[in-house]
Amino acid sequence: MKYSLSFEKPISDLYQKIEQLKELADTGGIDLSAEVAKIEERANHMKEEIYANLTPTQIVQIARHIKRPNTVNLCKLIFKDFIELHGDRLFSDDPSIVGGIGFLKKHRVMIIGHQKGHDTKENIKRNFGMPHPEGYRKALRLMKMAENFNMPIVTFIDTPGAYPGIGAEERGQAEAIARNLKEMTGLRVPVVSVVIGEGGSGGALGIGVSNKLYMMQNAVYSVISPEGCASILFKDAKKADRAASSLKITATDIVRLGISDGVIEEPLGGAHYDWDATADKIKKILVRDLTAYKKMDVDVVIEERCQKFRSMGNFGYTT
Questions:
Q1: Does residue 211 sit in helix, strand or coil?
Q2: pLDDT tens-digit series, residues 260-312
Q3: Which of 149, 180, 259 shows the shortest CA–CA distance to 212?
Q4: What is the pLDDT of residue 288?
Q5: Distance between CA atoms of 108 and 129, rounded to whole angstroms?
Q6: Which one of 6, 49, 55, 108 has the lowest number of neighbouring Cβ atoms within 10 Å?
Q7: Residue ranges covered by each domain of the chain
Q8: Which is it for the CA torsion 77, 79, 80, 86, positive or negative?
Q9: Which of 42, 37, 36 shows the shortest CA–CA distance to 19?
């Protein structure tokens, strides 16, 4: 198993043994099919058991998997005739956020999402999915275009957080995110968001003020990374496991807290094992929701979005 995670080592060892037996059978002309079948069955049972009892930290590892399908991958698999649009018309084109127009069944859709890479070179180009202010301004430009042409918006969230560098701060990182939050609240078209990997802090919210928010089964959504939380609260980033459990960042936690509207199931082992099956599940949800929103009045769509965020959390008053 290439790119296997640390907790997958027992499974990886079994698959390695399977490959060795198959190679021995080919070179030696020996029938080892029965032995191979037994080990494959054992590996599948072990895989099911491990993935049925994942810890929050292990889920974070899957959410960050380098071969997990990203926004561009999903655009090609879910939408027809996707055309990428570039630039914020103010400073530059930020490759850590991609966006463009595509077709989903009868729906013409504006798609916007964070973009990570599948190797070091691409991750450097994409700034590891951490947008600069121009990325959020590009996203807002495309959202306003979608509003002008009455196109529903789909956003894919997958970022550790907005880039915290000096240049980003000088160009107004906080203002860019805050403006997106304000403008997205009143968009006169429906917005459906899917957290496909990491949903980190304001970097995620910058394209995540939506009517519907879905979590992939092995995605996470949090105000801060477990490592960052552990560094601040426990003064030790190595206590990230404890922080991950306390933060309640998994898909089931986020649904239980009333922040997400549902969990999209992934193939056994994670979305990186089967991109096509993952895309198909997302596609079905999007078609269902966009078809429903097409029949709704614009003011109802806006009010639903506002009420969604107003209903989050509990407030107490003391005298």
A1: coil
A2: 999 999 998 899 999 999 999 999 999 999 999 999 999 999 999 999 998 88
A3: 259
A4: 96
A5: 26
A6: 6
A7: 6-53, 60-310
A8: negative
A9: 36
* Residue pLDDT, tens place only, 26-62: 777 777 777 778 887 887 888 888 888 899 999 999 9
Provide the sign of the torsion angle of the four alpha carbons 279, 270, 207, 166, taken in this order.
Answer: negative
Q: What is the pTM of this model?
A: 0.90
Contact 260, 213 (CB under 8 A): yes
Residue 66 CB partners (closer than 8 Å, separation 6+)? 3, 117, 118, 119
96, 130 in Cβ contact below 8 A? yes
Cα–Cα distance for residue pair 78/104, rounded to 1 Å = 7
Quick check: helix, strand or coil at residue 121? helix
Residue type, 53: N
The Cα 157–Cα 97 span in angstroms is 10
Per-residue pLDDT tens over the stretch 156-180: 999 999 999 999 999 999 999 999 9
Tokens matching residue 283: 């596609």
Cβ pair 267, 164 in contact under 8 A: no
Query: 3-state SS of the chain: helix, strand, coil percent to 5?
Result: 55, 15, 30
Nearest to 138 by CA among 178, 187, 92, 170: 92
What is 60-310's CATH number, 3.30.70.1400, 3.40.50.720, 3.30.200.20, 3.90.226.10?
A: 3.90.226.10
Q: Tell me the one-letter amino acid at 309.
A: F
Q: In Å, how far from its chain's centre is CA 243?
A: 20
Q: What is the CA radius of gyration of the chain?
A: 21
Give which of 158, 169, 161, 155 is closest to 203, Cα–Cα. Answer: 161
Residues 55-95 have pLDDT tens digits of 999 999 999 999 999 999 999 999 999 999 999 999 999 99
- Tally of CB atoms within 10 A around 292: 11
Q: Are 109 and 126 in contact (CB under 8 A)?
A: no
| In contact, 104 and 283? CB cutoff 8 Å | yes
